[in-house]
Design a protein that fits this description.
Layout: H1 9-15, H2 21-41, H3 45-66, H4 70-89, H5 102-110, H6 115-128, E1 133-138, E2 145-154, E3 172-175, E4 178-186, H7 191-204, E5 209-216, H8 218-230, E6 236-240, H9 246-259, E7 280-287, E8 292-297, H10 301-319, H11 328-341, E9 344-350, H12 355-378, E10 380-382, H13 387-394, H14 396-404, H15 407-412, H16 419-445, H17 449-461, E11 464-467, E12 472-475, E13 482-484, H18 485-504
Parallel strand pairs: 1-9, 4-5, 5-6
Antiparallel strand pairs: 2-8, 2-9, 3-7, 4-7, 7-8, 10-13, 11-12
Helix pairs in contact: 1-2, 2-12, 2-18, 3-16, 3-18, 4-18, 5-6, 5-12, 9-11, 10-11, 13-16, 14-16, 16-17
Length: 514
């Protein structure tokens, strides 16, 4: 296998192989949890596994001590998850124009304390704004740089990774694709139309084809699946775009305007062949299982401006109702649509002295971008790896009382668990989540447990953070050690998902590849 240098936990997970089938099955589950974690917040794979390792051992001892059924342990974990998530998000600080430079700190930390890379990502976001999108490529030279492109992105993806054409086997990326859009479910009655569309675009014009529709029945999914499986060079990708409410339908029309596509409404017209002028296009499409991005749509600029003006007039009409109804959700949707139509996409070209260095730095940059996106959306929090231990330390008695009075738990906890059980449970969580930070300190101080315990105790009891780079304490209000509040939430959820598998499973079905 090729050598790899990385600080990215998910990259390490992908390199691990087990001969043991049970271990391999658990690894596959952990990798799925980890990939979801990385795509959400750009970080946390290593932390969630380190915490899970400690938590699993601690819970095993707790189960023996209190003679607790494993199913009850999972119910208690779920209850703690809900409470802790609320307590973590309450501490979130929104990012706005006044504190936008916090993005620089978040990006730098995710880049292994690379201040130069953090400053570059900060500059990009200053240009494209909080709603912009950043893609990453390796540079031809040693220096990092970025370019700005017009683009639009939606949280909709393909229905099968068979369409992926990039080495990561996740991304389908095409240059100058034609785009067919339908606002209804495509079914077996549309197969002749789709077959003609496939032949015309991919075979006759030799261009990639992106199909976007409200949904697809099994016959249509099989049609695309079989065609792609029989001809792996066929440049197609099929996106499932939900149209469940008015805003989603209008966003679909926004996208058609941006791409210059005419939406096919199968119930108002029946087409035997799709006219080429009905197809939209763009300079590049980037699609994976959760998102679809179009760069430099070829829609008419005047039509796009008219669309934006229409949405702005709808906002003004909505404001007139503000005294009578809550308009916050509708306002958010309208502003998001305008942001999408005017959205800018930046490409960061990651440099380095060797191709290996470029690829390694690209993964770090990608984590930093995901972390910044999450912070812009959800806010940031100070605390490093000690957010949950600090919460438990300060609200221990309240947590115990809340758990003992939880009506849902009373129904499932038939063994009359009392104060001592929940007291021990809080201690288990405190030590497990603190173990992540202790592991980081151990990388610096080795087996000097006295020094490690001293640092952790001072951080938690005095609301400080330990800056490993400078080997000094920061106040929690002024520290640069910050991350997206969603990072701590998602690490906790990922940890509890892993524990749920390990604590309750006693049977594993393994697929062994010959």
């Amino acid at each position: 296998m090729n050598h790899t240098i990385t600080k990215d936990g998910y990259t390490i997970l992908n390199k691990i192989k087990f001969d043991n089938e049970v271990a391999g099955t658990i690894l596959e589950f952990v990798k799925k949890v980890s990939r979801s974690l990385v795509r959400e917040v750009g970080d946390g794979s290593t932390s969630s596994i380190i915490i899970s390792h400690s938590l699993f051992g601690e819970l095993s001892e707790l189960i023996k001590k209190h003679n607790v059924p494993r199913k009850d342990i999972i119910d208690v974990l779920h209850a703690y998850e809900e409470i802790l998530e609320n307590m973590i998000t309450e501490q979130a600080v929104p990012i706005n124009e006044e504190n936008f430079d916090k993005i620089k700190s978040i990006a730098s930390i995710s880049n292994n304390n690379d201040d130069k890379a953090g400053d570059l990502i900060y500059k990009v976001y200053k240009e494209i704004g909080a709603n912009g999108f950043i893609s990453l490529e390796t540079s031809v030279g040693e220096e990092d740089r970025f370019e700005i492109n017009n683009g639009i992105e939606y949280a909709r993806g393909y229905f099968s990774n068979i369409f992926a054409n990039k080495p990561d086997k996740i991304t389908a990326e095409f240059d100058k694709p034609f785009i067919f859009m339908c606002n209804e479910v495509l079914d077996e009655n549309d197969l002749i139309l789709l077959q003609d569309l496939l032949g015309m675009v991919c075979l006759q014009f030799k261009r990639p084809l992106v199909v976007i529709a409200k949904g697809y029945d099994l016959e249509v999914k099989n049609f695309f699946h079989i065609n792609k499986a029989q001809n792996k060079q066929l440049d197609i990708v099929v996106v499932d775009y939900s149209l469940a409410n008015t805003h989603q339908k209008e966003s679909f029309e926004d996208l058609a305007t941006y791409l210059g596509a005419t939406i096919y409404d199968k119930f108002s017209e029946q087409l035997e062949k799709v006219p080429m002028e009905n197809l939209g296009s763009c300079a590049k499409s980037i699609i994976n299982e959760v998102s679809t991005k179009f760069v430099e749509g070829l829609g008419d600029k005047n039509a796009i401006n008219e669309r934006v003006t229409l949405i702005e007039s709808q906002i003004e009409e909505l404001k007139k109702k503000e005294k009578f109804i809550d308009i916050s959700e509708d306002m958010f949707d309208f502003k998001k649509r305008i942001a999408n139509l005017n959205c800018l996409i930046a490409t960061i070209f990651v440099g380095g002295k060797t191709e290996l260095e470029k690829e390694t730095r690209k993964y770090l940059m990608e984590d930093a971008v995901f972390a910044c996106q999450s912070a812009l959306k959800h806010g940031y929090i100070s605390g490093g790896n000690l957010v949950i231990p600090r919460i438990i330390d300060k609200a221990n008695e309240w947590l115990i009382d809340t758990m003992m009075n939880n009506l849902d738990l009373v129904k499932v906890l038939k063994h009359g668990y009392r104060y001592n059980f929940f007291y021990d449970f809080c201690g288990v969580l405190y030590r497990a989540f603190g173990y992540s930070f202790a592991t980081v300190l151990a990388n610096k101080y080795g087996e000097n447990n006295k020094r490690i315990d001293e640092i952790m105790l001072q951080c938690i009891e005095q609301d400080k953070l330990f800056n490993l780079k400078e080997e000094c304490y920061d106040s929690i209000e002024e520290t640069s050690i910050i991350n997206s509040v969603k990072t701590d939430v998602e690490i906790m959820k990922a940890t509890f998902s892993i524990i749920g598998l390990l604590v309750t499973s006693n049977q594993f079905v393994s697929v062994q590849y010959q």
